[in-house]
Amino acid sequence: MIPADLPGLDPQWSRQVQVLDAAGVERRWHVLDNGPQLSARGEHVVGTVLCVHGNPTWSYLWRRVLGQAAPGWRVVAVDQLGMGYSDRLSQPRTLAQRVDDLRRLTDALDVTGLVVPLAHDWGGPIVLGWTLQHAHADGIAIAGVVLTNTAVHQPEDQPKPAAITTTRSRPFLDLLTMRTPAFVAATTALSRPALPKEVRRAFAAPYRGSERRGSVRDFVADVPFESHHSSFPTLAGIAQGVAELSVPALLVWGTRDPVFSTRYLVDLQERLPHADVQVYPRGSHLVLEDHPEGVEVIWSWVTARFGTSISGPHEPSEGTVAPTSVDTDSVALNVRDRDPETTAIVELGSDGGCITRGALSERVEEAARALYARGVRPGQRVAVLIPPGIDLNTIVYAVWRLGAVVVVADAGLGLARLGAALRSTSPDHVIGIRAALLLVRVTRVPGARISAEPSAVRDLVAQGRSRPSLPEVATMHSEAHTRNRLESDGTGQDPEAAILFTSGATGPPKGVVYTRSQLSAQVTMLRDAFGLADGEGFVAAFAPFALYGPPLGLPCAVPDMDVTAPHTLTAAALADAVEAVHATAVFASPAALRNVVATAGDLSESQRIALEKPRLVMSAGAPVPVSLLHHVQALMPAAVTHTPYGMTEVLPIATIDPTTLDSDEHEGQIQPGGTRGGVCVGTPLEGVDVRIAALDDDELTERPWLLGEIVVRAPHVKLRYHRAWAAQHAGERPAGWHRTGDVGHLDAHGRLWVQGRLVHVLHTTHGPLAPYPVEHRIAAVPDVADVAVVGVGPAGTAQCVVVVVPTRRVGRRDSPLAEATLAAAVREAAAVPVAAVLVKDWLPVDIRHASKVDRTGLAGWAAEVLHGRSAASPWSRARTVTKRATSAQPTTRSR
Which pTM was predicted? Predict the structure, then answer.
């Protein structure tokens, strides 16, 4: 029997079952089974989750699945014969025998009704073989399949996992798997951070002694890498059968697994194109150990599809209205069908250049031919890591010309997170400059490498001139095995076009999938919302917007700046960019505009005149102080200053020129229901529906002054999050709506006010408190240059702590507590109970926008201070943050 002290394992789940095998030999199986407990409680069984482990683990792997079982769900976790606490075997077992063994066990356990198989490692092929046998069996209905880090196919022409090939080689097989516990120990040693010692001991408990590790060796030896292997035909049959399996599926994957890398995930997605996917970029082989929250994801997926004994099956929300449609044909994602002599892109800087629309169109076609010759095909994912400018637009448009999917993750994510983001998409190709290709090599991003150094792009284009014309898109689709199995545009389907990544300011960056029509709808929305028309010019001081100019028909200028550091945009660089294309519209982040204002004194007379031409300045990414916009208007007196509200998942949602608001609106007067101020982002744009979901209720409403999460529906909302089923499931309630993660309210005029992020709301004894309104009131205190409001303490009793950056630094401080006069002024301005006022020299913000405050890290620092522990900076580790400029100190670009 199993030891009684294994962490997380209820001994009541443990059962012994006697089952005759195919040879008529009685075998003793050990299983974990909560069925008897359900029966004892008189609970109706909705269905069974059948858990099958791999090598060299045992049913202990599934302890959390049992512990968190949804009401009415039986969980059966088996110890395969020779493994865990089941009988030891005198002879090896093949894959086919183990599939048959499992069938006999489930018959003995009376596993009937709805069944969801759940497997890991080599348990995957076994449970899938069982699933295929029972797909049409009487008494069993396969409701769905959940797989974690496994495989059903190993191409002979691709490298095998080194960890397995080394272990199964003749010199090491017995030594590593049976005579020593090396293979057993190595499996749990892969996790980072390391698993607790008692958990590692629990995994190893059934394998103490070489006589108990025979099947560990046999499992390794039974991996059929070679076509002549005895288990190869069985695995090939399972692989083929999986491709015909139409039941719902969920794939939960750790992408740092050295054995089951993402290429096996890609293979399963090709066989199960309808599968939902949840990827953990930092997860390794034992993904549910590295990310225990994955168990909650599994149960959320199961109950969302099949329900519980309490709630019953979940159905899609009723009454969902289709979003307002837009004419997506009016703005195509290409650069053709316009005046070929019109300027398309101008790059400023020492290596700058200029290209017309006609030349860009030819360049795109030639690059597409060359990329096609390099193997880029429709539906494949192509990571593009090139600075904004002519080369970036050329390659991105060429990839779209081929019907492939562009993957864009900017350097603002930081090295580790950028690598993890790219890895999570399993790109087929990576096109990048030298530094980017070095980065993807270091971070183990898959995909064929294509250089995008300026000379390499020129060579690529030249190669394309000598290539034959591209085949029709339909022909390319028919000859290419696309991952998402989308057909050409002519079939009426909507192919994926791009995967973009969020900034990761409030969590790990998420991949956001857009289709071609959604991107086209976004371009249409931008054109119509801001009256962008032919004959105007556009300055893109934020990298993604450099791609929008040509589709909008606008000459686009890329300023001389470091795109990974928005605060390097100077007033002179902006003026030169405006002059280069006679720009009437400018897009720049708040950090960029701060430095533009700060460096305005360096402008020449001609540059000042150039800045009088734009009619529109747009800034987004974080709240933009009205005082900053007034300074911008002083530099560009003809411009209205819009702050379009949106996010990577949907942009724009609403817009307004905040300088047109009355002063009392900026100050955030107390409104009915206690709602106060925030950032007014304007009236939702035409075709965009906005509702508020109260913090304690999922009901969507337009009721004024109600504080809640902002929920949006529009034709340009993303298709889904990439390989992040949990985020997609949580963020799409009800169906067709996107939960933004922002909190705010609508006023009596239908205008939307943003008050902060949902995760940053302080749940105090006085009720929920959003940070923005409080911060705006404190920002008016004369001695405060910057401010952030954070919560310290548990939800329901959280204390409001204010962190301020003084206007001037006065020597070395002995304490982070603000001096009495400043603290009193802050408390008075806050107009809410404040537990403490702390002082820092700068606030940590994201790299992409240099504007979004890392309130989570700041709250941790504040808690350390207030508890009297070390106040070491939480940003001393490798965090994706930078300093936010808080005074008019110019930042010039280092050349």
Answer: 0.85
